[in-house]
Amino acid sequence: MTVPAAGDGLAPWLRRWALTPDGPAFETKFGSRLAPVLTAAGERAMLKVAAHPEEVAGGALMAWWGGLGAASVLAREDYAILLERLEGPRSLAALARQGADDEATRILCEAAAGLHAPRTAPPPPTLVPLDVWFRALWPAEAAHGGAFSTAAAVARELLDEPSDPVVLHGDLHHDNVLDGGARGWLAIDPKGLLGERAFEFANLFRNPDAGLALAPGRLGRQAGIVAKAAGVERPRLLRWVLAYAGLGAAWSLQTGHEVDARAGLDIARAAEAELAS
What is the pLDDT of residue 5? Predict the structure, then answer.
């Protein structure tokens, strides 16, 4: 997959698409460059020049969604993409932290429904099968056992019995669904996976932060809300929450974020306890 060469930046795309900077540029954790811009017609947009194959693949998926449930793609070429700018004042993370956690969860489920709706065109070939992602969990199981082993066992069962496969955002959470004003709540920054629909909602249980995620009774309450709003089986959803929390903890250990790993395992244990109850 094509990614920009060292030193490539925004300027070539500003010229190519006749864009005018409309604010300071910034970088993602992958080193991709983003900048608010104005098009030649005066439309407010966001230019992104990807620096990682995963973000290039995410751009292909954004284009495939066609603006249904996600920000619209105004232009895309190679590793650059021009998106509609989502500037509504509301924030799902703020809603959740300010006492409207249940409302934020329902909004995320509604956004997911738009993303999962059938399209006529075939999906992009860059989608990653869900079982490929879970390969990161097996070494953690072998090295640490305990909650990692529980999560790995549940993950294997789920992956061996696939159900309701769809194109997945793969990183659906409070900061990746933005206020699009009259267009409603719209997703950005997908990973682009292919797998069971219920998996899409597992990440909601780890967000918007560990403090809220681990609040007493929160996981069980949110499981009921998601099951009803998204039309998924509550026990199977909880199993995905357990499995994905273990995977997230494995990733955190790989990157040296031990505090995040402990929080992930706590969520896995809470999901296991909810299943047992």
Answer: 45
Tokens in use for 221? 């309450």
**229 pLDDT higher than 80:** yes
Is the preceding peptide bond at 24 cis, omega within 30 degrees of 0? no
- The reported pTM is 0.93
Given CATH 3.30.200, say whether it is the number of domain 11-84. Answer: yes
User: What are the sequence ranges of the domains in the chain?
Assistant: 11-84, 92-276
Query: What amino acid positions are annotated as catalytic residues?
Result: 171
Structural domain 92-276, CATH architecture: Alpha-Beta Complex (3.90)
pLDDT band, very low/low/confident/very high, at 9 (cuts 50, 70, 90): confident
> 102, 91, 90: which is closest to 215 by C-alpha?
102
Please spell the DSSP secondary structure of the chain, one letter per residue. ---PPTT--SHHHHHHTT-EE-S--EE-TT--EEEEEE-TT--EEEEEE--SHHHHHHHHHHHHHTTSSBPPEEEEETTEEEEE----S--HHHHIIIIIHHHHHHHHHHHHHHHHS--SSPPPTT-EEHHHHGGGHHHHHHHH-THHHHHHHHHHHHHHS--SEEEE-S--SGGGEEE-GGG-EEE-----EEEEGGGGGGGGGG-S-HHHHTSTTHHHHHHHHHHHHHT--HHHHHHHHHHHHHHHHHHHHHTT-HHHHHHHHHHHHHHHHHHH-
pLDDT tens digits along 77-119: 999 999 999 999 999 999 999 999 999 999 999 999 999 999 9
Mean pLDDT of the chain: 95
| Confidence at residue 8, expressed as pLDDT on a 0 to 100 scale | 53
Is 92-276 the same fold as 11-84?
no
